[in-house]
Amino acid sequence: MACTQGQGFGKFKAIVHSFQLSNLTGHLPQVLLSICAVVSLTLGLFQHFSTTHPEGDPLVDWVEGMTIIVAVLIIVSVGSLNDLQKEKQFEGLNEKREEHFIRVIHDGKEQLIDVHDVVVGDVMLLKPSKIIPCNGVFLSGHNVQCNECSVTGESDAIKKLPYQECIALRNKCLADF
């Protein structure tokens, strides 16, 4: 198959996710706990500094609020670390998925190259059940059928004719016309 694409596919860059208010909906318990912690800490500090306490009474009114803040920080840190590990694993899987090599004849030599490096003039050597990564002209082969559902939505296998047979069929149709 001869490729008719431009200067190769190139690689897509990762999209950086921006922070949005809608991202908070998944972290609603942490947000509510943070609000409660601030309120509790504020009330505890207010009681600590504004009222008189009997002698020997420990001044620990602020401890409850501080404990909630520490708990929220631990929960958020563990959750963020877990999310970061999942994201790195997902990126690794995506990179593996993107690594797809094909056999081509390029500059007169048979080579194994990445699908993103296919350029005009490369002749692809196809095997059964291979994914064709570009548009092209079917040069030669026997009984080749292609499922074009990802392009046309039609799930039927379409029989492909070699280039010479297509030209002969076109000439015959023009002669009959």
Summarize the helices and strands and which ones pair or pack.
Elements: E1 2-3, H1 28-50, H2 63-98, E2 101-106, E3 109-114, E4 123-125, E5 136-137, E6 144-147, H3 149-152, E7 157-160, H4 163-176
Antiparallel strand pairs: 1-5, 2-3, 2-4, 6-7
Helix pairs in contact: 1-2
Please give a structural write-up.
This protein has 177 residues and is an alpha+beta fold. The protein folds into two domains: 73 residues, no CATH class; 77 residues. Helices cover 44% and strands 15% of the residues. The strands form three sheets. It has a three-stranded antiparallel beta sheet, with no helix packed on it. Helix 1 packs antiparallel against helix 2. The longest helix has 36 residues. It is rod-shaped. The N terminus is likely disordered.
Task: Please outline what is shown here.
44% of the residues lie in helices and 15% in strands.
How much is the average pLDDT? 77
User: What is the helix content?
Assistant: 40-55%
Q: Which segments are poorly predicted (pLDDT under 50) over 5 or more consecutive residues?
A: 1-16
Assess the beta-strand content as a share of residues. 15-25%
Discrete helix count: 4
* C-alpha termini separation: 30 Å
Q: Which structural class should the secondary elements be placed in?
A: alpha+beta
Gyration radius, in Å: 33 Å
| Sheet having the most strands | 3 strands, antiparallel
The helix/strand order is EHHEEEEEHEH
How many β-strands, per DSSP?
A: 7
